Structure formats: structure tokens, C-alpha cells
């Protein structure tokens, strides 16, 4: 009875209020409703992001419960640490000093241009090579603000702290291409030479014609087409995309070689686990600041367009830039590389027939 009485009073008060309200003033509830809906949608979206979409924090090396630090590391300008590994002759007496920049889902141990050369040949070439874990990989601290420029500055700082001298060579493989292009843009005066091996192409570089980028993009496996698109248009979604199980995410993130070209399958079958014996050391800090960050940077908006770069060795006749690519690469289709080579006459382009993304494992 009390409830009915309260309700009747409430109805009476509401009717009285309505009768005294100007017909031109809308009810307060109608004004608040859109705001309430916006707030509710925002709260739901925030909770969804926190619980499902937001990537977990990286498992930092050396932190309590985190992976141990076993590699030598340098401390960078912003306090991050960069882990590295040295190969070949001692750097103090080497004539050729090379910095190797690994690809996606790899680490400092995967310096194939050192590990597959005999010590005798390294000695004959008087070559020193240092490989390093790119940010978020292996034992290098993540860099959530990573860009091609920051990667180039990491390379320069590594060279300076290891006392490699005024000039050095860089080799960038696959996703290591973003750092190598960055070096050609931001620190060309430090380079004795540069080599890009099957470098990943950003299909949104503004100087890449739509028909060329579309053709290259369409040659990728469907799952990778979608993953690349998400990385570009909705980078906040990429962690969920690559970890959910409703449909396939990136083939690289999921370590699925089903879409490899036949030459790459043959190499994987032949070499087995010896191709990547340190696989367990690649992602100890998690997927997001390694694989996902590669995609966000590689397919995001760049500060510069590599196709518009001038010759970095215009005044240095001894320096040169080389780009090697297999014509049967399904991970990074060759079509855009041919266009880039046409537009950059100073770039020495080498196309390897009948080869895929792992062609550099052949012959050794």
C-alpha cells in the first residue's frame, strides 16, 4: 500500500510539474538521455578494451618474475636497453664493421650472414658483425613509441657505444627493412653501405601507385591481407586480432607456414629447427611489443617515403645500397620492389629467381 501511495504521489507531482512547464522547454530527461547513452557506450567500450582488446604489459627482462638478462646490453638515450651479440673478428682490428637488423619473429641470434659463414671466411673478409634484439624482442626493452627514425637512432647509438667508428655497414632483413630505410633517411652520413634483403613494403607509402600496392597486397595470403589492414586502420585492435581464435590472424604472429611459397617450404623442411634454434628467446616479453609493434610501425604512417629518398652516397663513390628479393616470396610479394627499384636509380636491385623469403639460407 505504501508503494502504491508513493507512486500516486509521484504521478501527481509529475503531472503538476508538466502543467507548469513551458511547452517550449523539453523535459530534462530528454536532454539527459543522449548524454547518458554516450556515457554508457563509452563505459562499455572502455571495459571491453581493458578486458579484451588492451594488450597485457610486456614481461620485462630483469624484472621480478621476468625473463633473465643473459646478453650484453647498452643503455640508450631514453633509458631503454638494447641487447646485442658479436660475431666474426674482433671489432678492434676489423676492416668491415656490419650491423645486422633482424626480421620479424627473430632475435640477435638469427644473424644468418654471420652464422652461416665459416670463421675462416669471416677472417679473410676481416669482418665484424654485431646483431641486436630490436625493441621488444629477445632481451631488448620495448619501445611503445617506436618509429623508423627511433630505430635508426638506436642503430647509431649502438655503433657509437661499441666504438665502430665514423662509418659502418647495415644489413636489414624483412621487417628489419623499416630500420634500414630509417638509416638511409636519418643517418646516411654514418653509413659505408647498406643492404636490404626482402624488406617489408608499406602499402600506404604515398609514392607507391595504387595499382602497384594493390597488386602486391593482393598476392599475400588472405589472412595476412586482413592483418595488415587492421594494423594500418585500427592498430589498437591488432593484439586482439592476432590472439583471438575465431579466425586466423597474421601468419607470422601465429607461426603458421602453410602460406609459404614452395621454395620456402623446401628450406624449412631441409633445415628444420636448425633454421631458428633460438626460437624460445624471440618473444619472452610477449607478442605485442614484438610482432604486433612491427606491424603497427611497418604498415602505419611514416614521416617519410623511401621512394622519395635521394642517393645517400651521392658524394661518396665507395658507398652503395643493394636490395635483394626472391621472385617467389609470398610473405613479401616482389611486385612493389620492382617499382621501387625503377624509381631509385641509385639502388642496386637483385632479383633471385625461383626463391622465396628465406633464400639467404641457400648455399651454405
Roughly what fraction of the amino acids lie in strands?
5-15%
How far the N terminus sits from the C terminus, by CA atoms, comes to: 92 Å
Instruction: Note the main sheet.
Output: 8 strands, mixed
Note the overall shape. globular
Low-pLDDT stretches: 1-23, 28-32
Number of strands: 8
Summed up, the helix count is: 12
* Topology as a string of helices (H) and strands (E): HHEEEHHEHEHEHHHHHEHE
Q: Look at the helices and sheets and give the structural class.
A: alpha/beta
**Backbone CA Rg:** 27 Å
Task: Walk me through what this model shows.
- It contains twelve helices and eight strands.
- The longest helix has 26 residues, at 28-53.
- 37% of the residues lie in helices and 13% in strands.
- Strands 1-2-4-3-5-6-7-8 form an eight-stranded mixed sheet.
- Helix 5 crosses helix 6 (177-186).
- Mean pLDDT is 87; it is low at 1-23 and 28-32.
Quick overview of this protein structure:
The protein has about 375 residues and is of the alpha/beta class. It is built from twelve helices and eight strands. The chain is globular and about 55 Å long.
Detail the topology: elements first, then pairings.
Layout: H1 2-20, H2 28-53, E1 73-75, E2 81-88, E3 96-101, H3 112-115, H4 119-124, E4 127-132, H5 148-161, E5 168-173, H6 177-186, E6 191-197, H7 210-218, H8 222-233, H9 238-243, H10 262-271, H11 288-298, E7 321-326, H12 335-343, E8 347-352
Parallel strand pairs: 3-4, 3-5, 5-6, 6-7, 7-8
Antiparallel strand pairs: 1-2, 2-4
Protein name: AB hydrolase-1 domain-containing protein
Organism: Brassica napus (Rape)
Keywords: Membrane, Transmembrane, Transmembrane helix
